[in-house]
Amino acid sequence: xxxxxxxxxxxxxxxxxxxxxxxxxxxxxxxxxxxxxxxxxxxxxxxxxxxxxxxxxxxxxxxxxxxxxxxxxxxxxxxxxxxxxxxxxxxxxxxxxxxxxxxxxxxxxxxxxxxxxxxxxxxxxxxxxxxxxxxxxxxxxxxxxxxxxxxxxxxxxxxxxxxxxxxxxxxxxxxxxxxxxxxxxxxxxxxxxxxxxxxxxxxxxxxxxxxxxxxxxxxxxxxxxxxxxxxxxxxxxxxxxxxxxxxxxxxxxxxxxxxxxxxxxxxxxxxxxxxxxxxxxxxxxxxxxxxxxxxxxxxxxxxxxxxxxxxxxxxxxxxxxxxxxxxxxxxxxxxxxxxxxxxxxxxxxxxxxxxxxxxxxxxxxxxxxxxxxxxxxxxxxxxxxx
Length: 386
Description:
By secondary structure, the protein is of the alpha/beta class. The chain is 52% helix and 11% strand. The strands form 2 sheets. Strands 1-9-6-4-2-3 form a 6-stranded parallel β-sheet, sandwiched between helices.
């Protein structure tokens, strides 16, 4: 068997309402002074208030940084670091979507190690140590609570990533109640994002693609495929919400160790330049990338097709099942009310060539794709998605 390494968050709590026990679960790990990193929307809704109150009841002095935006910028990250430094925090808690969790990871790293951010970009460049870290996701999509990756927008358009086991948190708290108020559009986009994580992890060409990641990817697709429509159209269904949160986490564990590929690489210019939400960016290119990959990956897509869509078990033959899987994914986005064409999110045909060029900067992802992608190939995929 091929050697591999599998890293994940050491403590995971899956329980509806568990964020109200945040201090009990994570307070001792985080220490007496805690920085809570979140976004202004969640702060206004008061969603983090019970968790903050729980930390304070456990004896912590809490500082809240609530300025995280979608696709968080380097400037925002450094403001959060400064807020933590001024407060002399002993631990960091991320509360929110992937953006808040990603910022929290790097705040813990930069405060704990004092290392330079520019030396941490890339794979295994961050050395640590970091401050104690706990993460609480409020969307079912990124799986950031179990991934060693943080994505930050640098400059006007470019996204850069830090990938290192050092930034895996000490504890993740999965509380389905926090996702009950999530709007349908966000539920759909983040849910498809989680499905992309599982699909790309399963088919990744990474040398570290491993049996654990493939097993987790299949289980994730079973949960996500069976519950995404209910979660979108009946958002108060706590069982469906819990299944989506668990599926997102399992997909996160899968791609944290068997990394994602061209879908994400081609999605980044869509999000970075046109500020399209990450999950929707992935969904827009997903079927087109999979069709491009099919000559080399049809057998892999056929193996997971029925996990996401059980009726595809009736499809005979690898090619037929692969093609049906891709069509089902394309149809799912439309069924969930998502935009399905680049032109529908304000991207002009004249922008496609630059997007293809920008996608080539994501070589850390493209190397994992089952089929090699050159700039001309990326342009062809974007044209198909336009």
